[in-house]
């Protein structure tokens, strides 16, 4: 049995922004506004080549299945591609879509039954980075001032965040994350994401850029 470890201390370092690099910022802005997540991200023009799985996803946690369906439906109506249709699972209810710019988004809830209509509210957005070695990645971020909130051995690590952070950071095995999203794990080129923080600029062992 894998035991979870927790930390009650507040994060000394926080994420201040998440920037997606896209070929057409105006088109991307229209999509993310329709999707309902435009206030959580920034956009930057980039033609950097990128093929296959970029190694990360942004995951929306919401209160009920109707809200999951509402967000995923809005994304598809705005041009997203369905990677995994919304369905019940061991952990709740959720689905996965890919934005026109290539970014993969997941919407999920721990609830399997609706207790009311869609709320349009997001409880939390988690930036899940797919990494080769979760333990090594976790130590890398701890050394840069992030506090671990939850850790499940070498499978998953989640870091503490404060209310000023637009998203929460977590690490997941790359192949496990790809499988969860319904895509092949292979990919090359730019990650097409840049994370802003109070920790200063660096690139982590898996090639994710912070500034």
What is the mean predicted local confidence, pLDDT?
A: 93
Instruction: Summarize the biggest pleated sheet.
Output: 9 strands, mixed
Query: By helix and strand content, what is the structural category?
Result: alpha+beta
Low-pLDDT runs: 1-11
CATH architecture: Roll
Shape: globular
Q: What is the CATH top level name? A: Alpha Beta
- CATH topology grouping: 2,3-Dihydroxybiphenyl 1,2-Dioxygenase, domain 1
Oligomer state of the chains in this structure: single chain
Radius of gyration, in Å, reads 16 Å
Q: Between the first and last Cα atoms, what is the distance in angstroms?
A: 37 Å
Summarize the structure in words.
The protein has 211 residues and is α+β, with helices and mostly antiparallel strands. The protein has a single domain, classed as Roll (2,3-Dihydroxybiphenyl 1,2-Dioxygenase, domain 1), CATH 3.10.180. The protein is 20% helix and 38% strand. It has four helices and 16 strands. It has helices at 25-35, 65-77, 134-143, 174-181, and strands spanning 4-6, 15-22, 42-45, 50-52, 56-61, 81-89, 92-98, 104-109, 124-131, 148-152, 156-159, 168-173, 187-189, 193-197, 202-203, 209-210. Strands 1-10-11-12-9-5-8-7-6 form a nine-stranded mixed β-sheet. Strands 3-2-14-16-15 form a five-stranded mixed β-sheet. Strands 4-13 form a two-stranded antiparallel ribbon. Helix 1 (25-35) packs antiparallel against helix 2 (65-77). The longest helix has 13 residues, at 65-77. The N and C termini lie far apart (37 Å). Mean pLDDT is 93; it is low at 1-11.
